[in-house]
Write a structure and sequence with these properties.
Elements: H1 2-19, E1 29-32, E2 37-38, E3 47-54, E4 57-68, E5 74-82, E6 85-94, E7 103-114, E8 118-126, E9 135-136, E10 141-144
Antiparallel strand pairs: 1-10, 2-9, 3-8, 4-7, 4-9, 4-10, 5-6, 5-8
Length: 145
């Protein structure tokens, strides 16, 4: 009797493993710039760095942008928008003299779970209107998993 129970249990385990269908693969999206990008002149005017259509479902989003400014300090802000609405935003001050950083990297990670496809954009802007506008180094990246 014990052999029968053991055999039945093993058959059930192996059988369920065989009939179980694998989870559907989630398509990954990756974008990277290859040239420097100037931020718009003007206070808070956003520049779209990347725009992608993301399928419905759970997604982890990661981005990284390096900004440079050799003039007076400026706040630079980068963030994610879904269909035009901000999901999140990070900021840094870049430039401002010999004791300040002229280069800084802004990065973020976000989780979404939309029930319909949506347009995801990575946008950056700066706060001031100084003589020298901050720019973005090549290789600003956006990854969606």
């Amino acid at each position: 009797m014990k052999r029968f129970i053991l055999y039945s249990s093993l058959l059930a385990i192996v059988g369920s493993a065989i009939v179980t269908t694998p989870a559907q693969a989630i398509p990954a999206i990756f974008r990277r710039t290859t040239v420097p990008l100037n931020l718009p002149v003007g206070n808070g005017v956003p520049r779209v760095i990347h725009a992608v259509i993301v399928p419905a479902g759970p997604r982890v989003i990661n981005y990284s942008v390096t900004t440079t400014n050799f003039a007076a300090g400026e706040f630079v802000r980068c963030g994610l928008r879904a269909n035009g609405n901000f999901l999140e935003q990070h900021s840094t001050v870049v430039g401002g003299g010999p004791s300040a950083a002229n280069v800084a990297t802004i990065s973020g990670v976000w989780f979404t779970n939309f029930n319909a496809p949506y347009t995801l954009t990575l946008v950056c802007s700066h706060d001031g209107a100084s003589a020298s506008v901050p720019f973005l180094e090549p290789y600003a990246e956006l990854a969606v998993f």
